[in-house]
Each structure stands twice: as structure tokens, then as C-alpha cells.
Amino acid sequence: MAQDNNRSKLLTRRALLLAGGQLALLGTLAGRLYYLQVLQADRYAMQADENRINIRLLAPPRGRITDRFGVALATNQPTYRATLVAEQAGDVTATLDAVATLIPLSDADRRRVMRDIHNKLSFVPVVIRDNLSWDEMARIEVNTLELPGVSIEQALTRYYPFGEATSHVVGYVAAVSEQDLNADDPLLELPDFRIGKSGIEKAYDLDLRGTAGTSQVEVNAFGRVVRELAREEGMPGQDIALGLDMALQDLAAKRCAAQGSASCVALDAWTGEVLVLASTPGFDPGAFSAGLTPAMWQKLISDPLNPLNNKAISGTYAPGSTFKPMVAMAALEANLITTETEFYCPGYFQLGNALFHCWKKGGHGNISLRRGIRESCDVYFYHCADLLGIDRIAQMGNRFGLGVNLGIDIPGEKSGLLPTRAWKMATTGVAWQRGETISCGIGQSFVSVTPLQLATYVARLVTGRVVLPRLDRHQGVMTPTSPVATAIDTDFAPLGVQQAHLSAVLDGMFAVVNEVHGTAYGARITDPGMTMGGKTGTAQVHRYSEAERAHGHLTGASVPWKNRDHALFIGFAPVSAPRYVCAVVVEHGGASGGEGGAVAAPIAHDVLLAAQQRDPARKVPEPPFAAPTALAQG
Amino acid sequence: MESFLESSGPRQSLAVKLLAVNWGLLLLLCCIAGIGFAMLYSAANGHWQPWASKQMIRFVVAVMVMLAVAAVDLRFWLRWAYSIYGCTFLLLVAVELRGAVGMGAQRWIDLGVIQLQPSEMMKIALVLVLARYFSALTPEEIGRPTRLAAPALLVLLPAALVMKQPDLGTAMMLVLTGGAIFFLVGVRWWKFALVLAAGGAAVPVLWRFLKDYQKARIASFLNPENDPLGAGYHSLQSKIAIGSGGLFGKGFGMGTQSHLSFLPERQTDFIFTMLAEEFGLVGGLVLLGLYTLVFVYGFAIAFRSRSHFGRLLALGVTVNFFLYVFINIAMVMGLIPVVGVPLPLISYGGTSMLTVMYGFGLMMCVYVHRDARIGRGGDE
Questions:
Q1: What is the rounded average pLDDT for all residues in chain B?
Q2: Global pTM exceeds 0.80
């Protein structure tokens, strides 16, 4: 019994010790609970939220691009695609078979679907087919009950109603590339996001893009979205209204396209607004958004007509005789000639042993400034150039916007070149030759300019101000009540040349088109009050040898296309109070191999006549020029 | 048989015995189980199916088993202790053999109606057999190392088998329960120190016997942030769930970690996490308090018992129950590695519920027969 007593006491003692130990351990648990749920609560609450809350970006709709009257040039069009959620479909193969009876489904599509399903979680939608037509979409939509897991998703893709006609000026959007990712807009990370890659789409990309919205969703451990917690809509991209008049643009694009590789620029000379900026051939801008196939890309870049090049701003051409009015201005301003000065043209100009020919073999005889411009006498301007020297020609040329960057608001502008002594020394190390000035004086040799510069040059001639062209119309879309420019924009600084000199040169350009001996008489506008003035030009592409010269086949269809001269024309209208100016360059004389007066001037005629009839600078067309009906939405 | 019953002191009718059970303890157990039903209801996103309803049926059955065990004479358990242990041990061996033949780890025997997990049953059988063994020894005999060899084997043999299954948690519980009983009966401190030292030396050897996933769990416990998506994922997500619960929790059925599946095994081993996430510190402490009350009842019943066997049995069951609670909660709070030990009475699972309630049945039995005097040999 004593032993039992001892044993009991021992047990009690040890049991109490054990109870104490257990109490200590329970205390540890309670302490740990306190540590986790009170001391570390904030940290873990944050981690729990990080676990469950996913921020998803909502792509804002891209801003539209319109012409000056609100006609859509770039807009967003809903496209439809069929998607499949594997876990809802059950038997995927059977479902695909059923889908294939409704819409065409290639074996490649099927393989891709099966692969995607295999690689993704079963609740992630997999694209069966993209870009469904309305009919295909409807056929699936009607049959959704028999197609478990199949649904139609709608997305917005960029749509260019006028396609090729505006491809260079509006540009295109395409998938984000590696180097674009440097910018820190989170939108760029979205797989389907598109950004502007050329033209207005690129220049105003940030305005058009808008800002991302966010959707806070709760997800489970497998990434499945359980519900949306909060949603913040982004800012849709801004619409951009261009000064372009789509009716004119369309006309110019069609006329240029008929000549193959050509470009046309028309401006409102008073405001600098670009009414037409056409370059042909164009390309399908929509194809870039969907993604070009390598074959399509190869075709575009190997085309000898260079469809991707915006020739209106990045094509550089010898201006030829269109250069002459500016040379005349330089000579007049330098007081080397007066409006009355005459030179004698025997058909050539001799400098030392070298002969510089006039285009007219027999020569023009005694010739004044007005006739010199009208009949484009080379010798007259050889004299002017020789008197001026190359540096003064370049100086005046630059004042008129030739050979300088005009800062047009789309990328890709070239500055061309007006050579100077310093330039030649710096680039070739050889001193300038006097004879080089002679050929530069008629816009050949080193001289190169862009069509946009030519149009700007005419605008400066008719206004006497430093007009700068721009595409974006800051005032937005023009409405019947919106104010219009009734005078030359005085924000443009005066050129600082004498009005009398400008008038004399413009008078010569009037004669070019409207007098029987003028080089563009055939392209004159006969409608009362809409008379056009202008200047033809021919840019030599190929330097002819004496032998070729002797044979006399220097123009026309007998010359290989690549070697044919470019045909140029610059013009303005109406002559009484010039408002619209236009420059046209037809590469290699176009389809017929004609000269400036025969090929380029008629295009300018059409554009300037239509411009005056529509008068987009002053009035909104009535009824408004409408987009093709299929594109009316959005 | 008749004579055995005759010799069991004052005879009590079954009804009297059932009335004599500790109603306070039973109420407490029902409370805890009730919390369990609520958590299972929440775990199924507010549905009785598939867990809560089944668990309730099991609990009713388990309560009946408990009452039946309590009504049996304490001396019956004393006499049959070795046999019960022996049978359980054989079952364990059988599972082990079949597991070796069949594929992978199979820890249970399918009886059709219920799946028996011998390793779970072994926890109580071990308590029973050790109580039986030590109740027959005097303090002097316990002092002799030779007398400790047999019970040490009784602990280590099943522990080794369970470890091989592999079930680290149960093996740990068997060893710790056995150790606690050794401690209770007065085995000297230095002997524990010696075993501990030997065990420490054996760790590198044992490490080689651990499966890769067990090693990974221990490694990830030591540095859970190291591999948040791998082995440390469970532990980390569990801590996030508990911590984000804060003082008052996210509300019943509102635990984001649990309901969005970030928390693994929310209806079984990690159910405490869900409770702490949804009811916060307050909820966690209330449950800990209820468990503490159960331990208090266990100690009280042990001290109240007049027989040494009864005391050892009640204390053993209490210790076992405590280990369940402690290991599970410490595990989900990242205090110890993740070893598969359920939270008793709350985690979804049949065998553990039955085992635990069988244990409480024995404790009740000790309570009902608290005044019975049992000699060292099992007689009066």
C-alpha cells in the first residue's frame, strides 16, 4: 500500500509537470496565433489580396482619324472570332466536327486548337477561328445550344475605309514590337494591342491610343476569374481630324494611280492645311494590323513602284523647270535683273568650251522674264543662275521651302538638297564648278526636292509668307458654323520679298497655262473665275551621252521606263486670288512617258478645279460628303 | 465470465452506467464537433454535401461507440489490453505487407462500410497497453532498465512500421505518446536525456530512410520562403490565410484563401487555418480554449480515478488528444513541418474521429469506474 501511495504521488507529480508542459505549448500556439493574426496581420492580409486580386488592363478604343469634314479615314470595326472552352465542351473533337459543318475549318486550324487546349488550362478560351464574317458569326450564334463551350467573342480591329488611297498619310497600326516596349505604357504588354507604325497613326499614336482602364478581378489558385471586384474605364483615344478633304484625296489618288508611280500634294495656301497628300501605288493598311505573311511583305518591298514609300514627302526629285520661278525670284531680289530684262537665246548657252542647250533647238531669240517662264527657256535661266551663283540660289530656294525640312506632322519626311559651295567641298572635297551652277539653275544636277516642298514653295509664292504645311486640323472637324480663314494666316512670317517681284513671276506662271505658247496650255481651266497658273517641269533621271543626244531619242516611249524623265507640275488657283496650290510628280512620265505639261498638269488641273468647286477651305459640302455606306458605323 | 463480472465490485446496470458518464465532457466534445460541422459546411462553399453531413453521421456513430466503450467494465479493457494491441499490430503488419505488394502507400483496410486505418487505432491501443504494462509495476521495477525494454519495443515497433508507410506524423505521435507515458510513470530524467542524445545521433541515419517528399517538407519548413511554389507552398499559404484573418476574421464562408483554393486540404489537415481565417484570433482562441477544457477534464478524471490503470489510461488518452491538437495547429501555423495529422473532432475523416472517440470512451470508462480498485495484477 505504501508502494502504491508512492507510485500515486510520483504519478501526480509527473502529471502536473506534464500539464504544465502542455500549458506552455498551448501558450506557444496562442502566442503564434497572436503573432500571425495581430502583429503580422497587415502583411498577410496584403499577401492574401495579392493572391486573389488580379489587375487586368482594358484596352481603350483607339481614336478615329477623319478628314476635315468628319469622314472616317481610320476607324474601329468589330470583328468576331469563335472560341472554345475545353471544360465546357466535353468532347472537343465532336464539338469541332459540329463547328466544321457551319464554318470552314482547316486541318491546320484543328491542330492548332488541339495544341492550345493541350497547353492551356481547361477553362481558358481557345480561338477556333479569327475574323469570322457576319454570316459565319451568325451561323454559330444560332447554333450555340448544340455547341457546348463554343462562343463568339467580339474585338475591335482597325479599319481603313479608303484603303490604298490614304495608306501613306493615315499610315497603319501593327503589333507591338520589341523596341516599342521601351515606352512604359502597360497597354503595350497586351497581346492584341496595336500601335501606329506609320503616318498619322504613328505621329499621333499617343493621342489616338487613349489610356488603359483596369478591371480588378478575383481569381482562384488556378487563375480562374471568380468575379470582378472593381472596374475603372480607361480614356478612349482622341479623334484626330485632318485638314485633308477626302473627296479631293480620292480624286488625286485615282488620277495618280492611273499613272503608276506618282504623287500629288495640294494645300490651302492661306492656312498651310494639307488637302491632298497622295502617293501611288499604295498598299492595304489593314493587312498590317492582322499581320502580314512573309510572302505579302516580300511582294511589297520588292515592287519596283515602291508602294510603301510615301513619295509625297520622302520622294526626292530634281525639280526641273518648276525650279525656274524661284531662280527668277532670286535674280529679281538680288537686283541682277528687272522684270523687263531680256536675254538672247540662240538655243544654247556657252561657258568656256561647254555648251548648255536650251530645250528648244533653234532658240527663243530675245526673251523676257515673262516669256522665259511661259516657254520655259533654259538659256534665260542659265543667265540668271550664272549671275546669281549657286549660294544665292540655294538661299532663296530655302526661303521658299525647297531643300529644307518642313516639319510635316508625319514621319518619313526627306529634306532633299539645294547644293552650295560649302556643301560640295564638305561632301566631295572638290571645289564648286561654275558650270554646275548653270545646270542647277534649271533644277537639274544636284538639286532635289520633295513634292511637299514644291507645293509649299507655290503656297509661299502666292502668299508671300513662310507657309508651313500640316496635316492635323487643330480646330477639329469643320461644320457649317465653324469659322473659316478669310485671309492669309498672319502667323506665317512674311517672306521678305517684294510683292512686285512675286506678281511678275506669278504672271509668268499664268502665261504658262493660259497662253497659246505656254507649256501647259492644254491643261488650262476654262471655267470662269477658276483659272489656274503653274509651271511644268521635267526631271532628268538619266544623264544622256553625246551619242544618245545625237540620235535624238531622249524622250518618249522608245526610252526604257527606268530611264525616262519624271514629269512635274506645280500650280495654283484661282489666279485672281490664289487659295489652292498643288504639286504633282509623275515618275518616269507615267503610263505614256509624257512630259510635265502632258502628264502632270492634267492631274493638277483636275485637283485644282475640284478644289475650287468644292472650296473645302471655306464651305462644308452640301450634302456632306459621305463615306461609303458599309463604313458608316463607329 | 460470470465469475469475472461477479468480482467486478458493485454491479451497475447499463442504464446506470450510461447516466454516470461525464455529461460535461460529452457536451464539450459535441461543441467542438459542432464547430467542425460548421467549418466543413463552409469548406464546401455553404453546402452540407459532401463533407458536413457525412461527418455528422460519423459523429453520431462515434458517440455511440464512445458510450459503449464507457459502459464496458474498466477491468475488461485491462484484461484485453494486450490482445487489442496485438490485433492492431497484426493489422498494421498486414497493411504493410499489402502495401508492399500493392501500389504505393496504402494505410487502410477496406471493410466495405468503413476504411480502417490501423495506424490511427494503434494510437489508442498503445496507450491501453502501456497503461496496462506500467500499472503492474512498482516504482522500483520501473527503475530497472530491463523492465523498460519491453514497453520501449511496444512503442518503437509500430512506430517503425508506420514510419515505413510512410506516415511521419503518426509515427511521431506514437513515439511522443509513449514517451509521455514513460515520463508519467516516473522514468528518470537522465534516461530521457540519454534517449534524446541517442536519437539526435540517429537523425542522419533516419534522414536516409525518409522519402524525398518528407525531406522536402522538412527542408521547406526550415526555409519556407525559399520555394514558395513548391514544397513550402502549403505552409506559406496557410500562414497567409491565418494572418490575413486578423483579429475577427473575414466572416463565416468568406475566407478568400480557403475558398479560392489557395489553401490546400481545407477540409482535412488545414481546417484550423480556415477557421482562423474566417473567425480570426477570437475564433482560434475560442477553439484552443475548448480544447484546453477537454485536457482539464482529462486530468481531472485521471486524478479522480482510484486505480493506477485508470489514471494512466485517462492521462494517456489526454496526452494523445493533446498531441493531435498541438501537432496539427503548430503545423498549420508553420511552427513545425507539415506532417499529416488531422485536427481531432473537426477535420473531415472517419478513422480519426472513431479513434479519438474510442479514446474518450476509455476516458469515460475510467470516469464511470473511478471508484473501482484494481490491483497490480489486474485483480482487486
A1: 84
A2: no
Assess contact for A517 and A482: CB atoms under 8 A: no
Q: What is the predicted ipTM?
A: 0.89
- Residue A36 has its nearest CB partner, among B139, B303, B333, at B333
Cβ-proximal residues to A550 (8 Å cutoff; 6+ apart), any chain:
none
A415 belongs to the catalytic site? no
At A395, the amino acid letter reads Q
| Banded model confidence at residue B1, pLDDT cuts 50, 70, 90 | very low
Task: Decide: A391 and A421 in contact? Cβ < 8 Å.
Answer: yes
What are A297-325's pLDDT values in tens digits?
898 888 888 899 999 999 999 999 999 99
pLDDT band at A546 (very low <50, low <70, confident <90, very high): low
Q: Which residues of A touch B (CB under 8 A)?
A: 3-4, 6-8, 10-12, 14-15, 17-19, 22, 25-26, 28-30, 32-34, 36-38, 40-41, 43-45, 47-49, 51-52, 218-222, 226
Contact assignment for B285 to A22 by CB distance below 8 Å? no
Distances (CA, A) of A304 to A255, A278, A506, A587: 19, 18, 37, 12
Distance between A87 CA and the closest CA of chain B, angstroms:
18
Which residue did the predictor score with more confidence, B20 or B232? Answer: B20
For chain A, domains (ranges, CATH) are 57-241 (3.90.1310.10), 246-281+309-614 (3.40.710.10)
How distant is the Cα of A219 from the closest Cα of chain B, in angstroms? 7
Q: Number of A:B CB contacts under 8 A?
A: 138
Give whole-number Cα distances, A108 to A114, A129, A132, A290, A296, in Å: 10, 11, 16, 18, 20
Alpha carbon distance B252, B41 (integer Å): 10
Q: What is the pLDDT of residues B101-140, one digit of tens each?
A: 444 455 666 665 566 788 888 999 999 999 999 988 887 8
